[in-house]
Amino acid sequence: MEALFREALLALPQAPLRDLLRVGACSLCAMRFLSVRGRVYSQSVPASPAILAEIGNGDGLESDRSSASCCTVCQGILQSAGVGLAVLEAIQKEGHEFCDFSLEVTVPSATLVRERSLWCYLRKEHPEDFKAEDPNECIVSLKEAVKWTFGPQIEAALVKNSFLGMGKVMDKNSNFHISLVFKHANSSSEIQFLSDLSGGDSKRKRGPVEAGESIAAVQRSLASISSDAFARHYPCPPPQLDTPCELVSSCRKDAIFVVGRYLKYSRSISQSPWTIQEDRIGDGSVQASACEIIGDVIFPHFKADSYKFHAAGREDIDVRMLGSGRPFLLEILNARTCSKQEELLKLEHAINSNKDGWVKVKGLKEAGNEVWTIMRQGEADKQKEYTAVVWLSRPVTEADFTTLSNSKELEIQQKTPVRVLHRRSPLVRPRIIHWMRCEALHDSSCYFLLHLCTQAGTYVKEFVHGDLGRTYPNVGSLLDCDAEILCLDVTNVKMDFL
Ligand SMILES: [Zn+2]
């Protein structure tokens, strides 16, 4: 027996300890019930008969189940062998890279019922040592004990197989999660009586309670039953078990985010694929969207399950995105590999070397969860700068340029544009045109370049042509003629985070 374990055992009240072992609790469950915590759980544990031989077998009990192989409380979970190996296999199958991990544990609801049963028994037999009505106030939870018992084993297996460096430990804040799900075939039938008992409670469904069904629901049920009522419906101490729980181990990584800005030099590439109810419009001849041109390079690098593209606003397909580019983020789900900044630079170079050259990116970097808040904030606050080619129904004059450039912080009223009425509700939205600047076009009397800066959400095309008077004032009304927009570029999306 390891010294630490022996020391911990001998420090415990011997009569309840002896009783716990004799009714079939494993030695670690016995420790849980006697509020032992910490490192001692990871020691190699002697079988109950060996412990009883050490502390004295006592007498006064009709039966001794201490030699039964499967713990009657944790359903054999804390006695599991090969947990490190099972985790290793799951990780090798998935091919994850990671530098630390968190451990998530799921146990069958029946273990809660069995804990309660043993608690009822102990309160009767050892009222001085077990006073509380609710075992959760005193005992160490099974999930916590699983982490103490198997965490060090998993760590050792991962270090030995070079998944982790020495000194790396479990970290509950890690973005890589190893999950241990323990299942027992009989779990749902064992907790059935709870659902029968609370049949009058409209919040609970009648019928079988699923194994693993909200452990919180079982906890609530147990909390609502007195110990006496419980003991009338379930044997105390808990009955023996023939088969232990089965373990299913899996792993996953939290979403990671790659942020950057994109530029779009084409008037026939959309920001994202055109779809109607999930069906992609067009066939293979349709050009890839900016989202796909970027995602198709970055996504394979991470060996992930999938990705989502999010941009700070959007431009129409026929509008180029120039200048500073538009901030975007790629949400990469369950990435297998970790990325380094120099690899992101290579990916940036790969996108920018695409032979078509219609879409480019800059400033690729990995970001944390906080990027969502920044994107949303930026969406609401951002100002955007545009350049438009404008046509007037009469020759352009210097006075027109002066009129427009003198209009600072111009408030306009925009009714929902005709072209988007099918998807946006009909409203009047006040918007601000912060400034305008005009540039003459060589050899063309009726055309000029209009540079302007607007509040987020302004429909710029409609501000130029007026949208049948639905946007007012507009360039035409300001200059007292008709105005049309020939083409439009976004030249700057002001946002601080990139
Ligand atoms: Zn146990």
UniProtKB/TrEMBL annotation:
Top-level enzyme category: isomerase
Domain of life assignment: Eukaryota
Species the sequence originates in: Selaginella moellendorffii (Spikemoss)
EC number: 5.4.99.25
Similarity section: Belongs to the pseudouridine synthase Pus10 family.
GO BP terms in the entry: tRNA pseudouridine synthesis
Database matches in InterPro entries: PsdUridine_synth_cat_dom_sf, Pus10-like, Pus10-like_C, Pus10_N_euk
Signal sequence, renumbered to the chain: none
Keyword tRNA processing (UniProt): yes
Keywords annotated in UniProt: Isomerase, tRNA processing
Domain Pus10 N-terminal eukaryotes: 71-246
Protein's recorded name: tRNA pseudouridine(55) synthase
